Amino acid sequence: MNIATFSFIVFGVLLNAVAQLLLKAGTKNIGEIHLTLSNLFSVGLKVASQLPIIGGLTCYVLSVVLWIIALSRVDVSIAYPMLSLGYVVTAIGAWYLFGEALTVQRLVAIGIILVGVALLART
Q1: Longest dimension (CA), the chain
Q2: What single-letter DSSP state applies at residue 33?
Q3: 36 by DSSP, 3-state: which?
Q4: What is the pLDDT of residues 30-40, one digit of tens each?
Q5: How confident is the model at residue 72, as a pLDDT?
Q6: Which helix (H) or strand (E) holds 11?
Q7: Based on the number of CB atoms within 10 Å of its own CB, is 67 exposed (0-12), middle (13-18) or buried (19 or more)?
Q8: Which parts form a coiled-coil structure per UniProt (predicted)?
């Protein structure tokens, strides 16, 4: 895999992780959502009016564009497992931004993911 292809994958994954963090930030502004038929429109309007959610959805669209470019250049069996880098970025971002726990078990899992991605990138 060349550096350009790897860059498309990594930037796509990073945008996807940023999207997750922005969506979480938007939901923190809203609070817990309880969706029913009677409040479907008002909740939808509330969600759609959150700037972090709009930003998160924009990041998703951009990440899909980069992902399509990457898939045109590399086997999906190589590219798809690289999405696990998103777990690493999201876990660290959630810890930093939202105070979510990074336990020893989570850190070990992150280390395993990083080793797996490094091995995969070398093939």
Answers
A1: 53
A2: -
A3: coil
A4: 988 888 899 98
A5: 95
A6: helix 3-30
A7: buried
A8: none
